[in-house]
Amino acid sequence: MDLQVSSLWRYPLKSMAGVSLPLMRVNSWGPDLDRRWMLVDSQRRFLTQRQLPTMCRLAASLTESGLRLQSLDDESLFFEAPEPSGTERYLVSVWSDTPEAMDAGDEVAEWLSEFLGRDLRLCFMPDTTHRQVDPQFALTGRRVSFADGFPFLLCSESSLEALSDALGRSLDMRRFRPNIVVSGAASFAEDTWRRIRIANIEFDVVKPCARCVIPTINLDSGAREPDVFKMLRAERGRNGEVYFGQNLVHCGEGELAVGHRVEILE
What we know:
This protein has helices at residues 106-116, 157-167, 226-236; strands at 4-10, 19-21, 23-27, 30-31, 37-40, 46-47, 58-62, 66-71, 78-82, 89-91, 100-103, 121-124, 152-156, 180-183, 195-198, 201-210, 237-238, 241-251, 254-257, 262-264. By secondary structure, the protein is mostly beta strands. The strands form four sheets. Strands 1, 2, 13, 14, 15, 16, 17, 18 and 20 form a nine-stranded mixed β-sheet that branches. The protein has a five-stranded antiparallel β-sheet with strand order 6-5-12-11-10, covered by helices on one side. Strand 3 and strand 4 form a beta hairpin. It is globular. The two termini are 15 Å apart. 38% of the residues are buried.
């Protein structure tokens, strides 16, 4: 069995389109600068494609000074947002956590609110913020950004192919928003892994990923496709949840690259 990394993904802004990377720097956060930006509503609660499916038609990429937001439908629609510095700070809600964030200002908030049709703010998680990974699954001191709960999500190409076969049409891996995609494993073999190593970094495979409505969103139109969730429930339903992919907690820092071998340690 020749397991290797087939793609790597970073999501600069939570729930917007991701960026494919040939090389990924891993630090204490997990993927460097992954999901350090986020949208919040007037109550400072996080917003994602669950509430705003058309977020999938916006791409966020990192620049030397901050963030570039680009419409995937119209190249003329873009906005350059500098990283906040000395601006308003406040607590935001991400599930049951309330980490501190920095506001990115009125101009970008107005641009995004008009594009997405809802009053919102853009915020950034500074280096001084520490959001603890669920201590049930990680040692005290392990941090995570604005990701739902864990630094990394791993998915398998062969597992996605099995779901595509069950659905009767091809599913795009980007619907499932992984950081690490592997090839060469049997379908759903990742469900049995407990610890893996890629390059010099070891990962604890801590929890299967419970899926929400986001994988049902068509990435070209932003429309929801109920038959996708019906298939997922039939193929991957368990105890009232639907699972696909595995959440990882990393042990160490370094670099991952496409083509790196994946070793199953447990």
